[in-house]
Design a protein that fits this description.
Length: 215
């Protein structure tokens, strides 16, 4: 059975070209992410980007969040020219298992990376050091953070919930009403996380959560 690959790219020309080229491999069946229905399953999400931006990762997060059975838990292969360090944790939390640098990659390398990701192996394709780093961070996340209700930013579930509501424009009073606690409690939550992470204020806290991929 062929490996179903959903392709997400910066522009339609790149996306269509990648789909045509990948479909020339017998073991791969590629199509546009936009053509995948919410209940359609795919084995790998391939992201092709010039640079990894917050908007691109937010789109990946939305896909994984909104896909009924298609995107959740699916490994992500990322091909990009630029990969800011602060994007690494967020990308890994979204399922990144293989990273290739666009200028140094061929479609043969991308195809190998996709097949490896579908089979649960991340060694082929991509830089070995980079792949080991991804594996180490994933292990820390799965064994040390998730079991304790934390994430890559070291924030608890309630802190994330508060920051998400603040990011939506709610006041501390409105957040308290939405969560069902006192405004003083919300202010305490904000004060503690701001102090713990050496942040300036609640706006800085929301930016920190966005930058690390928690929101």
């Amino acid at each position: 059975m062929s490996i179903a690959v959903a392709v997400l790219a910066d522009d339609p020309i790149t996306e269509e070209g990648a789909i045509v080229r990948l479909n020339s491999y017998d073991e791969i069946s590629a199509r546009s992410l936009d053509s995948c229905h919410a209940d359609s399953a795919f084995d790998v999400l391939l992201v092709l980007a010039n640079g990894v931006t917050g908007s691109m990762l937010t789109r990946v997060a939305r896909v994984r969040r909104e896909s009924g059975g298609g995107g959740r838990g699916v490994p992500v292969v990322l091909v990009a020219n630029e990969f800011p360090e602060h994007s690494m944790l967020r990308a890994i939390s979204l399922g990144l298992v293989n990273l290739l640098y666009r200028k140094e990659s061929s479609f043969n390398a991308i195809a190998r990376a996709v097949v490896s990701a579908a089979r649960g192996c991340t060694k082929p394709g991509g830089d070995g050091v980079q792949q080991r780093l991804i594996g180490q961070i994933k292990a820390i996340r799965e064994t040390a953070l998730i079991p304790h209700g934390l994430n890559v930013a070291g924030l608890g579930a309630r802190e994330v919930n508060v920051l998400r509501l603040l990011a939506d424009g709610l006041s501390t009073k409105e957040v308290a009403g939405r969560i069902g606690c006192s405004e003083r409690t919300i202010k305490s939550v904000i004060h503690q996380l701001v102090a713990r992470h050496n942040l300036k204020n609640r706006t800085h806290a929301v930016a920190f959560a966005l930058r690390t991929g928690v929101l």
